[in-house]
Amino acid sequence: MKLLPETKAFLQQFQEQSRLLVESSELLLEGVRAGAERYGGTPARLHQLERQADEIVHAIANELNHTFITPFDPEDIHALASGLDDIIDGLEEAAHRIGAYRVRPIPSVVVELAEILDDSAHAVQRAVQALAEHDQTAIAARCIEIERLESEADILVREAIKHLFVAPSDAIALIKVKEIYELMEEAIDRCEDVADTLRNMVVKGI
Fold first, then answer.
1. DSSP states of 44-111
2. CA-to-CA distance for 3 and 176, rounded, in angstroms?
3. C-alpha torsion angle, residues 91, 94, 95, 96 (rounded to 10)
4. Which pTM was predicted?
5. Long-range contacts formed by 76-82: CB under 8 A, 24+ apart
6. What does the pLDDT read at residue 47?
7. pLDDT score at 84
8. 20 to 30 A Cα–Cα from 131, which one of 48, 97, 163, 196?
9. What is the pLDDT of residue 5?
10. How far apart are alpha carbons 71 and 105 in whole angstroms?
């Protein structure tokens, strides 16, 4: 068992997670912008990134089990690693449903949500970088940005779902699109969960 804190190791793993998150969000955005006919390979590529992210979570858990003194509260390390992984999982699940449900054309709201999700992923990455730099001010600023984006997504999804029910013509298509909206909103919500974890780490001292 290691007695000394592996600050650099944990931070590098968090940064790698956030890099995979941004790569995933950019890939999803590229896919939905390209349209249904060119979307095909997006879910499979995202699944590969999601598996890489899972490996990092396992590595962090193993590191925690073998380190006696940790640089941050072990619960916070676990929460941050799990939170980052949850965003990627949610993003990958939304991407899978878009492909599996063969929604044609891809609704403009899906593109807008992918843009918000991508902005949120980049904000998370910058917050993780600020954690590595022990920059509390930057972490706070990025957390505020993430909250703003989450609120923006909430409003967008509420209005989009309301519009779906105005004059529904295909109940099955409506259910599919509604589920995709909600999955994407949930992935954005998970970005806010990560922001909350980072705030807790700041309060405890970083």
1. HHHHHHHHHHHHHHHHHHHHHHTBSS-SS-HHHHHHHHHHHHHHHHHHHHHHHHHHHTT-SSPPHHHH
2. 51
3. 120
4. 0.93
5. 76/197, 76/200, 76/201, 76/204, 77/10, 79/197, 79/200, 80/14, 80/194, 80/197, 80/198, 80/201, 81/13, 81/14, 81/17, 81/56, 81/57, 82/57
6. 96
7. 98
8. 48
9. 47
10. 48
Using a 10 angstrom Cβ sphere, with 0-12 exposed, 13-18 middle and 19 or more buried, the burial of residue 135 is middle
Which residues have C-beta within 8 Å of that of residue 190, sequence separation ≥ 6?
A: 83, 86, 87, 90
Give the separation between CA 194 and CA 108, rounded to whole angstroms: 27
Token pair 């063969």 is at which residue? 102
Residue 4: its pLDDT value, please? Answer: 44
46 touches 27 (CB < 8 A) = yes
Contact 132, 72 (CB under 8 A): no
The tens digit of pLDDT for each residue in 105-154 reads 999 999 999 999 999 999 999 999 999 999 999 999 999 999 999 999 99
The two tokens of residue 46 are: 């995202």
Residues shown for the chain: 206
Which amino acid is it at 148?
R
Q: Tokens 């349209």 — which residue?
A: 35
